[in-house]
Amino acid sequence: MPTELLFRDDAYLPETEATVLAVTDRRGIVLDRTVFYATGGGQSGDAGRLVRADGSAIAIATAVYGDDKSDIVHVPGEGEPLPEPGERLIAALDWERRHRHMRIHTGLHLLSVVLPFPVTGGAIGAEEGRLDFDLDGGEVPPKEAIEERLNALIAGDHAVTSEWITDDELLANPGMVKTMKVKPPMGSGRVRLIRIGEVDLQPCGGTHVRSTAEIGRLVIGKMESKGKQNRRVRIRFAEAG
After folding, report:
1. What is the 8-class DSSP label of residue 71?
2. Are 167 and 189 in contact (CB under 8 A)?
3. What is the dotted CATH code of the domain comprising 4-93?
4. Does residue 154 surpass a pLDDT of 70?
């Protein structure tokens, strides 16, 4: 039975009751449902804990997809105890870390609006995020201009929502896909889209905030050349910590 991915419908759900389906030979814990996002699409897997009936907790370092991509495997920290199959427990996120991922991820979608070039790579962390752009003869504006435009979009308080289209609809609209190397997950018959007001619409399976204003002010970090026509642009939070 595949893991029910609760974060797809509600990225703000911090915890859930769950049943242990299995413990893998590599000490991974598979649940029937989870709020933990598994590493994918450049976004780091969630950390947190599994709280057992006696109140003790199993620290979870990250979450990854299982071999068949239908299960999410919760990876405990080294030396942590393991639950038994059939055990009921509470899966609880490190919410502050997850929320920072959501803010950075939505910020990167806005960065792809400010810099409308094909994306060749990216990464989403709790402290910073980055996108790699294929310039193909285009020019990147000065850092200050990028930062000003990005924060203007954030301050616009645009609603962030999700919707679904069929695989065939996406194939008929290839311009929706901004990433060159990472393709949206297809094969289940439908693809999830993230819409940011009237500003942006693109396929994405990650977690996002409900409004751009929730991101907070961002600053442009180091900008690097990665080959003849590739430019890496980093964003981070303006506030300390």
Report:
1. S
2. yes
3. 2.40.30.130
4. yes
